[in-house]
Amino acid sequence: MWEKLQSTEWASVDWVGSGKGENSCRDTKYDRDNEGHSGFLAINIANSKQLVGWLQKNPADVITMHLGTNDIVQQNKPVDQIIAAFTTLVDVMRTSNPRIKIVVAQIIPIGIGSFNTKIQDLNKAIPPWATKLNSTSSPIWVVDQNTGFSGTSDLRDGVHPNAAGDKKMAAVWEPALVHAFAVAKADKTAALKERGLPFTS
Questions:
Q1: Could you write out the three-class secondary structure of 48-62?
Q2: Range 69-73 average pLDDT
Q3: Which pLDDT tens digit goes with each residue over 36-53?
Q4: I need a labelling partner for 38 at 20 to 30 A (CA). Which of 51, 75, 105, 174 fits?
Q5: What is the C-alpha end-to-end distance of the chain, expressed in Å?
């Protein structure tokens, strides 16, 4: 995703987060800051209030969220509990920044076990959940990372994307992220104009 933005006006976007690992990426230049924590459950992140501390240390204007796989695969959590955790996380995001922009993914399929039926159930629940929580000041956009993604050829280990899967996911994230960046920038510009201050990105 970082590479795709380098030829756009968003090349200087500052990615934030406490994680700085390579994540198997061959690119040596990309901005590694992230909150993509391997093995974490959405329910646990919500219940233990981990996102509170993450956003206090690394506040954000735009957040992408691809969560739920571990809840289903590791602990077979019910979809309604996962969705409730999503709501808690959005509340935390908006407490940190009332005008935060949120892009939520309908998650990718996996190539192990018989979990994809439940993944589809979660994915079906995400759009109406997002519509219910959507607001003008802090919109939630849903992107479909599932359709067209292969649970075999686009995964390196049955769970995590390979290079082909990464490209497919980036292609889905990109238009939503670019739009979110533009809306966030317009918000900041308007706020600064109200205060009589110039905006520099």
A1: CCHHHHHHHHCCCCE
A2: 97
A3: 888 999 999 999 999 999
A4: 174
A5: 19
